[in-house]
């Protein structure tokens, strides 16, 4: 359960960072601030040190590979769709899952990453987000 909470905190930090429009050299400090704000939620008060480090590693890792991650997602969208058209929650859930499947030091299996992403999408997205996230991630995992 704590890994799921760490993943949720990571998603919340990435969601916040998606609204930041400053110069790239400021991302480091903004990442730290987004992580801090996400972790202030009482829901995450029980995360242990290992899980807190995982949140930081996943936020920074996702941001470091953002261009490649976004390219993978974009290539999986139907013609006429762009990343910017996606709901912010869906976009960042996809980014985190792709990072965990393709770029993380300890990669997650596609099945686990997709399941966790679908659960986040059901919680934070629209009624159709779970199906949408599942379809895109299934395409990327193949």
Quick overview of this protein structure:
With 142 residues, the protein is mainly alpha-helical. It is built from 7 helices and no strands. The two termini are 27 Å apart.
Describe this structure in words.
Helix 1 packs parallel to helix 3 and helix 5 packs antiparallel against helix 6 (110-124). The chain is built from 7 helices and no strands. Helices cover 70% and strands 0% of the residues. It is globular, with a radius of gyration of 14 Å. With 142 residues, it is mainly α. The chain has helices at 2-17, 27-39, 49-64, 66-76, 88-103, 110-124, 129-141.
Descriptive labels:
142 residues, mainly alpha, 7 helices
Q: In one word, what is the shape?
A: globular
Structural class call reads mainly alpha
Count of helices?
7
Give the helix level as a range of percent.
over 70%
User: Biggest sheet, in brief?
Assistant: none
- Tally the beta strands: 0
First CA to last CA: what distance?
A: 27 Å
Taken as a percent bin, the fraction of beta residues is under 5%
- What oligomeric state do these chains adopt? single chain
Q: How confident is the prediction overall: mean pLDDT?
A: 91
What are the low-pLDDT stretches, counting only 5+ consecutive residues below 50?
A: none
Write the element-wise H/E pattern from the N-terminal end onward.
HHHHHHH
Radius of gyration: 14 Å
């Amino acid at each position: 359960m704590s890994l799921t909470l760490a993943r949720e905190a990571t998603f919340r930090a990435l969601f916040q960072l998606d609204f930041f429009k400053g110069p790239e050299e400021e991302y480091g400090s903004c990442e730290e601030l987004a992580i801090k704000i996400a972790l202030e939620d009482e829901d995450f008060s029980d995360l242990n040190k290992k899980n807190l480090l995982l949140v930081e590693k996943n936020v920074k890792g996702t941001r470091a590979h953002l261009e490649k991650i976004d390219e993978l997602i974009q290539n999986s969208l139907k013609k006429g769709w762009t990343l910017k058209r996606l709901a912010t929650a869906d976009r960042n859930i996809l980014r985190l899952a792709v990072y965990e499947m393709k770029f993380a030091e300890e990669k997650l299996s596609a099945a686990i990453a997709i399941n966790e992403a679908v659960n986040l999408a059901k919680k934070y997205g629209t009624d159709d987000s779970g199906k949408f996230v599942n379809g895109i991630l299934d395409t990327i995992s193949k």
